[in-house]
Amino acid sequence: MDDLRDKYLGQVMAAVDEAALEQVRLAAIGKKGEVALKMRELGRMTPEERQQVGPRLNALKNEIGSAIAARKAALEDAALDARLRSEWLDVTLPTRARRQGTIHPVSQVTEEVTAIFADMGFAVAEGPQIETDWYNFDALNIPGHHPARAEMDTFYMARAEGDDRPPHVLRTHTSPVQIRSMEATGAPTRVICPGRVYRADYDQTHTPMFHQVEGMAIDRDISMANLKWCLEEFCRAFFELDGIELRFRASHFPFTEPSAEVDIRCSWEGGTLRLGEGDDWLEILGSGMIHPHVLRSGGIDPDEWQGFAFGMGIDRIAMLKYGIPDLRAFFDSDLRWLRHYGFGALAAPTRHAG
Ligand code: PHE
Question: Which pTM value belongs to this model?
């Protein structure tokens, strides 16, 4: 019995892994193991012998069993230690260099425009890009037969067959947000509405989707003079140039009366564009006094209230300010272009930087 004990306890301690340990278990206390065979011999013993040997064999079986369990736990601990040592990693090492994303010029300029007009008391409003033809046209004093509808190269949405209601449109300008804002807040009001607009047009200065910002101020005695001051103030702040010169050129829009297009003085000398000097003029926006029909469409009494509105191309003024030559590249998602013309996340626009 003592020989058996020494032999198997020795083997248990010598086992180097779980498989070896299992071999020992089977050989010692498995069903056909040596201890089990000895137990079978009990049947051939006298009752006295049996009473003596039986408990000792059981004790031996238990002892070997616990030795195996203890050895197994020790092996598992050692394996875990080894794994922890081999999978160790230095959390103080520097990280891999990260590519930094940039802010798209359209986003940057939208923020700049918003910040400048916010300083002048304008809130920001937004409207849907899929509009009814009422908001996009009729409410803005552009009736069905009006040539402006054709001029705008409108994208029409499809209607189900047999549905003869007028189709929705992709808004061709941000002016429908004028009406939605009038409905939402009434007068007096001062809002700008930046967003995407759509026209079927494509060349170096036109893309089927582009960005506009609408501006609108309604009060009891708003005049063309307020419009002029407001836009000049904006351009000086936006282009960061005191010498900015604007030209108000009489024009026509169905939704404003009188109407003016606004050009900015510039020079193309030597192939580079310089603002505020030279003899050329570049158109940057359309504007005017809101037509009484339009105020009425928005639920505002034109005998009591009046106001101005303007619509400016965000992409256009971004190209001018940052010297970006081709509009189409704005929407190509070319990473090289974005890294070159994009802005760092911390280049937050503020009116009071300079
Ligand atoms: N909606 C006009 C356009 O897209 C611009 C505009 C807006 C003109 C407001 C006058 C007043 O061309």
Answer: 0.71
